[in-house]
Write a structure and sequence with these properties.
Number of strands: 0
Bound molecules: heme C
CATH class: Mainly Alpha
Shape: globular
Structural class: mainly alpha
CATH topology: Cytochrome Bc1 Complex, Chain C
Strand content: under 5%
Length: 392
């Protein structure tokens, strides 16, 4: 019973854990076929699409699971936030590790986009140092360091060794250690939840099959705006650059960097400045706290007639679910309105080998901002990504 309760509270957290396992498995397969060299990386990905369709499907699964993982993590965060998990003393470490986990997640996304080394990967590789350069004081040297340090094998090692280790340590503190202490441990947890997870796995598999990344060029060349409106994991990184569509210089940096960074810091540490509730007997008391807190809410009293019809429990649950839904929409609707124009699959329409080597493969002179001043022009880079048919 207790496990069930815990499970439903952390429904999205459980999904995130499951998707992380999907990423671990699919990623392991992909490493076997990937070649981390500037001249071979893209060819090694194309090879999958032309010769090994099962592995290409695994790659698309890896991409879709990445998107759904970010969504699940955000939903898990919203629910924990609204449930005020951070007020419980024992949960503060869980809160902090949870928020910190956003960092390796972002790292996974960025390195993951770079690895295929088509023009999207090239774009991200150039934009990360530009972005880091905006940080006060250390920015310029950090930016230079990132440019100097970048090599394909290093990006791969960060993606498949360093970030997984950081994630594992944080996840262990965040949740695994708790699961392992329960009777049956991790293996029972996985067996119990595996069946429940099957529909989600089927959905991911179907998405990956129906909407693959077109990488068969020059045999199949997409249209410039292809992939518009189809959500991808890229959106969650592009959204930080989107202010360059509307502002220039400091204002763009304000919205794209300073404000998100400040929000992140506040979210990570604010529980440490609040009064704590102590729960001596673990999850159960936590739960009772929440229920008691909710019952007092005036809103619930105002809704008395509805309570009669639905019953107390259902009403509280519906109100809770509705709040989660509204907060999630407040985040995802702006994300969609800004990002839907990103033609994720269209880059290859111009950037493919039939358009010549210069347009087909990221040039060997990448990183060189003297030879290619576009690379340090954030406005060009962002406008070109969102509106490649207009700005180039
Ligand atoms: C309509 C054709 C077209 C599409 C579609 C297109 N590009 Fe480009 N792109 C160009 C041209 C042409 C240039 C060269 C501009 C120049 O050098 O003045 C360019 C330049 C670039 C550059 C600057 C660096 C360089 O080496 O020139 C990057 C990065 C880039 N594109 C990435 C992308 C990405 C990412 C996408 C998909 C979101 C994309 N492009 C879609 C035509 C296109």
């Amino acid at each position: 019973m207790k496990i069930k309760q815990y499970h439903w509270h952390h429904f999205f957290g459980g999904i995130a854990l499951l998707l992380l396992i999907v990423q671990l498995l699919s990623g392991s397969v992909l490493t076997l076929f990937y070649s981390p060299h500037l001249n071979e990386a893209y060819a090694s990905v194309q090879y999958l699409y032309n010769e090994l369709s099962a592995v290409a499907w695994i790659r698309d699964t890896h991409r879709w699971a990445a998107l759904l993982l970010v969504l699940a993590v955000i939903m898990h965060f919203i629910r924990s936030f609204l449930r005020k998990d951070y007020l419980i003393r024992e949960s503060k470490t869980l809160w902090l590790t949870g928020v910190l986990l956003f960092l390796p997640l972002l790292g996974f996304l960025i390195t993951g986009f770079i690895l295929p080394w088509e023009w999207r990967g090239y774009w991200f590789m150039e934009m990360v140092p530009n972005y880091a350069g905006e940080i006060p004081l250390i920015g310029p040297s950090l930016s230079q360091f990132l440019l100097d340090a970048f090599t394909m094998p290093r990006a791969l090692v960060v993606h498949v060794v360093i970030l997984p280790i950081i994630t594992l340590v944080l996840i262990d503190i965040h949740t695994l250690s708790k699961i392992k202490r329960r009777a049956g441990g991790l293996s029972l947890y996985l067996r119990e939840h595996g069946l429940f997870a099957t529909p989600f796995l089927l959905i991911i598999g179907a998405l990956a099959y129906a909407l693959p990344m077109p990488t068969q060029d020059p045999a199949i060349i997409p249209m410039p705006l292809e992939g518009e409106r189809i959500p991808t994991a890229e959106w969650f990184v592009l959204i930080f650059y989107a202010p360059y569509l509307y502002f220039k210089g400091f204002m763009a940096t304000l919205f794209g960097f300073y404000i998100p960074f400040a929000i992140f810091l506040v979210l990570a540490i604010f529980p440490y400045f609040l009064k704590t509730k102590t729960s001596r007997t673990g999850d159960r008391t936590e739960h009772e706290h929440h229920v008691a807190g909710r019952k007092k809410k005036i809103l619930v009293r105002v809704l008395a007639p509805l309570r009669k019809v639905l019953g107390e429990r259902t009403l509280v649950k519906t109100a809770g679910a509705l709040t989660v839904f509204l907060v999630a929409m407040a985040l995802f609707v702006p994300l969609y309105t800004v990002s839907y124009a990103s033609p994720t699959m269209g880059c290859n329409s111009c950037h493919n080998l039939t358009a010549g080597n210069r347009m087909g493969l990221p040039p060997p002179t990448f990183k060189d901002r003297e030879l290619n001043p576009n690379l340090k022009d954030n406005t060009f880079m962002v406008e070109h990504w969102f509106y490649p048919q207009v700005v180039w």
